[in-house]
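Submission sheet (multi-component)
Chains listed below:
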Amino acid sequence: MDIAAIMVEIGEKLKTIPELNVKPWNPDGVTVPAAFVSLPEQIDFEQSYNRGRDTMVLEVLVLVSRSDAENGRDMIAAYAKGSGPRSIREKLDYSGQNLYNSCGDVTVTGAQFLAAEMSGTNYLAAVFRLEIEGSGD
Amino acid sequence: MTALNRRLKVITLTIGSISFECQLKSWTLDPGLDDGDRMYTFCPDGEFTEETDPNYTLDLSFFSDWRLNGISDYLTQNTGLTAAFVIDHHPDIAAEHVRWSGNVRIKAPPVGGDARDTEVTEITLQCQGVPTYVRV
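Outcome: structure written.
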């Protein structure tokens, strides 16, 4: 699996969410609502023989508003819904209707909510955890 | 001999001439040789151990593959048939490449699991006779 290609493909899928500013890397600045695709926490090689399967865990950070903004709760809830036009899970979870070219399977296992600081501002944020599987080639 | 150890990384496994090693998570070719019962007689050196017969099995744990002729599909479609298998162990290491070949009785694998887990199947296939072992 090519980590960069996977991050780019995830970014392309996120860009189909209306008004979401997507960067498939960690930029310095931010215009909310925004989503950043981070490098994997780790990659595990050789889960099967002959380089048949590698796995990695990758995170997508979604920032929606200043953490004290009134509309933050509703915005982050829309991204964290299991389905819907802004659902991160629906856009990224692998299925027969949502295939990937850069890897075999992507599973959005969950999200954590937090206040993330960027450029001196605290934003209401969610970190989505993606488990990714694919051929070792 | 000097000390040697290897990690299990590369094999080839064919069953019915189809390669399945890339789905394979774990494999064991078990001779199934039980220790025979130890018997005694009233003679001072009257002790012997009964001979036992091997009962080879091929234990596989693999990532399920339901594509046509994927390992899950193959085992299901050919349940009850006998198929030839060949395992090449350490095929990439000169002087350590060894091979077992023989026949196994195919049976359908169990299917199912926990929601959102990676689909993995474990199965034990009975070998027909004793597999042939050769150094390659």
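Remark: The helical segments of chain B are 71-77.
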